[in-house]
Amino acid sequence: xxxxxxxxxxxxxxxxxxxxxxxxxxxxxxxxxxxxxxxxxxxxxxxxxxxxxxxxxxxxxxxxxxxxxxxxxxxxxxxxxxxxxxxxxxxxxxxxxxxxxxxxxxxxxxxxxxxxxxxxxxxxxxxxxxxxxxxxxxxxxxxxxxxxxxxxxxxxxxxxxxxxxxxxxxxxxxxxxxxxxxxxxxxxxxxxxxxxxxxxxxxxxxxxxxxxxxxxxxxxxxxxxxxxxxxxxxxxxxxxxxxxxxxxxxxxxxxxxxxxxxxxxxxxxxxxxxxxxxxxxxxxxxxxxxxxxxxxxxxxxxxxxxxxxxxxxxxxxxxxxxxxxxxxxxxxxxxxxxxxxxxxxxxxxxxxxxxxxxxxxxxxxxxxxxxxxxxxxxxxxxxxxxxxxxxxxxxxxxxxxxxxxxxxx
Length: 409
Hints:
This protein is α/β, with parallel strands linked by helices and 409 residues long. Helices cover 34% and strands 23% of the residues. It contains 14 helices and 20 strands. The strands form 5 sheets. The chain has a 7-stranded parallel beta sheet with strand order 12-20-19-18-13-14-17, with helices on both faces. β15 (250-251) and β16 form a beta hairpin. The longest helix has 17 residues, at 182-198. It is elongated, with a radius of gyration of 24 Å.
């Protein structure tokens, strides 16, 4: 065995999920060498495969760089080493060389056994307390927290291709296109939403004001009313435009039904904001029957939690909007807990924020008219993502129509 080498192993659905291919690619990209010492390929669809490799570097530093890279693709050292812990020197400060998390399910080797890391999110640190480990954002780090440093004793499980059922994610793969038949995709999305709820799954929508501008407000409202949505995450704009549409029929002064400009329409969104302040809150506006339809109305009536996060550009913002960004992040995470599917509609800002809070195995559907927005949001390292470049005003009503048919059948 060469001096600068180490045995690593990897198991799972290595071939069809491309895990082994990615590990080979990473080693070669970094100008390393490898020898396949053992490989067992699963014979049936559900069988897992196993590979043992000898990885070689030019020197110890080169080898360590290779190992750190392939550990993040699912490889682990053949001889397990314990994690290394170091205390946080003060609040909001992580120790040097802290381990920065991915969004993939992660285990750590502590006191002779593997421990599952809870609250999995990307770009966080891992705090260990007793026999438990969990992801913690820098804002929640407390002085004295035991934080993992380095890459030793960490095992990542990359997302695998789904094994059962032809759903929209297998049908499309992790891809985005504006050229596929929209009606066919709408049918598949509706089927997966329907089946997710039928199995007791949790579905969250992340939405921008284009939902209202494009005429999709009624479709989203109906999804909430029918019980298919378990949480709504947005900014001030979606709520303001939704309430403007519900009370005045316009979105930023434009008549949604025929795209004409309303007389004095430029002040309509400010009228909507003022109406909410007069009522005291969105819930009070519903209670006093000043708000009788729309996304916010359906959330209140059906007890669906919503979180509105502020931005520096907001008008108002509405009294329900959380203006402290750290508090808004925490509230987003509460709604996202145990989500099975997240549908991101026409908002890059809030969708990226949400994506950073999700483990890799949550199904994500991104719908936007802008191809670069979809591409950016799709880069999540998961099989369970679908990007649809289309007009949400045309697409979402098709999805709702298909769900209605499934409910009736």
